[in-house]
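User: Structure with zinc ion, tokens only please.
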Amino acid sequence: MSQTTPKNSSTQNLAKSLVRRAGVRMTRQRRAVLETILNSHDHPTASQIYERTSRGCQGISLATVYNCLETMAGVGLINQLHFNNGPSRYCPNLVPHVHVLDDASNRVLDIHLKPGLRVEDIFDLPEGVQIRSMDACLRGYIPEHCLSPEKKK
Ligand SMILES: [Zn+2]
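Assistant:
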């Protein structure tokens, strides 16, 4: 079962503009890695990103993929996630969200706040606490129908 969709020009243009906006130099490898992540809906690991990227970007090494991921996470183009003791996983969704990790399958699902809700509406924040970003992991079970790309948009 593939978790990627074919490359298309809108993904390539999005990757190009994201890299430019982040102020990092656009290289063939960075664009290829970013396109892979943008086309992946399963929060892939670096190894999975390498495997998928190397299909269309011959000669790229795993070390280069790691460097690209580190650079892009460092400038906020992608999110680097740590679950349990497993390898880092990567998420291109920059809209504030949290993750649900399926205990049994290690699959990950993005969860957004309900429309109109703010973090302050959910958590009992002490006075003066200000939230700049969200990075939370809920654990449980994710039914198959929630993981199709169409459902997640
Ligand atoms: Zn995510």
